[in-house]
Amino acid sequence: MSEVSSSLDKTDVGVDHDYSTIEEPEPVTIVPKGNLADLEEQRSWNWFTIRTLVTSGTGFFTDAYDVFIINLVVPMLGYVYFKDNNNHLPAGTEGSLKGMASFGTLVGQLVFGYLGDAVGRKKIYGLELMIIILGTLCCAMSGSNAKGSSVIQYLTFWRFVLGVGIGGDYPMSATVTSEWSSAGRRGKMMSIIFSMQGIGNLMASVVTLIVLACFKSAIIADVDNLDIVWRICIGVGCIPAASTVYLRLTMPESPRYSMDVENDVEKAKLAIAHATESKAIEGESVPVSKKAKRAHHREFVEYFSHWQNLKILIGTSTTWFLLDIAFYGISLNQSYVLNAMGFVGDGSVFDNLWRTTLGNLTVSCLGFVPGYYFTVFLIDKMGRKRIQFMGFAMLTILFIILSTAFYQLKKIVPLFVAIFTLAQFFFNFGPNTTTFVVPGEVFPTRVRATAHGISAASGKLGAILATFGFNKLVEIGGAPGDHAFLPQVLGIFAAIMGLGFVFTFLIPETKGMSLEEIEQRGTRNLTASLPPTSSATGTDAVAHATPIA
Asked: Can you tell me the mean pLDDT for 418-437?
């Protein structure tokens, strides 16, 4: 009992506790110093590091490809299925088709985030990728009934299923990558994983251009041949996912989860030895507690009942929500902006599709992808918070310029392209990357996946709002297709980015902090708020509060 009290006294300096009513807990695991120190000191890029990057990164590549390919496929669907509507999907149908994946993603983020903490990373990592493969294949093979449901309705449903898998990948890949990384390169590794979103976006354009080129004569001869083109474009997305399912299913349990949640030291030692390509260290002989029955929802409520912890979750969730309103408002409807830039064809079906796709590729190469890699190389030097402040500030300024000088800039296409490209650059060398990284490291292990899932789901709410709202807002004051209100919408985005700057103040800096330091900081906040006379709660808190050496 004296050892446990001593540990708490060291953790909560200056806080008076009454331990007289706390029952004697079962023996608690104190992890030998050598284990996590080996993982923290790992600096070389060994096979396991590369495997982790490939396993998680390929999933994010697939996620981005599947999300953004719909922007290129929708015009094809208009030419094939809506000839009587001027070759355009009705606004409501287009919004549902684009937005349904976001609804599924929101569900997947919440469900898989909870399960990742409740049952462990290993038990469910890979399931989300199987759902992505199923959803992608079914999207590509969508058909229609002789009477009743149409191709678009089936495609919309399967995009929801696809979204569930994509959503599950967010909290799982973020926590897995974070927990297998050392403090000195954790930001870089998580940014590399997320940067695959940029590569997936770029490859969606590349694949579409290749398939269009292959079917050029067929499309010119008969526009209905686009029915084959869009199915191939979507179906290609399942290839990278299928190639990494095995790697995910055989990924060891995170050593941090084994130590901090399961209290399984031996399991953690073996996992760390596997990751560092060294022999498992013989730690000092310590008593190991039996695997406790956990009530994850109770642990979650206990942790976030303290304002110091809750305000961080509010910060990560709100900034992601605000970011995604603008990010998806532009990205999923990028063809509107590309038309304003002059990326329009000569009126023929093939040329219109070719120029729109080429415009998306141009924007990706100029600003979208480079922004990710600036973050990769600078995040562990500049820090997460600094990059996020900078990104929100620059986006606010750039959207103000685009909004106030929209029609003047349209006449100077190179300048318009340059400003829009800068906006894409500062999305990714800014909050689009940091809002993914921070929730994956700023919370303790036992609530990390859930908190990341909630933060990501908040972002997806913003994406849904943008997807359904943008299509209607841009048409105010003009004929359908004129996008007469687009300058005002860009002004709204500027105000939203300004709010993102303000809410960034709620987020702490995690640069250079090990996950063990973050774990102990959360423990101090939790134990300081515990009622000193509650024996049951106190016992549980002691079990969680024991510092990891």
From this structure: 92
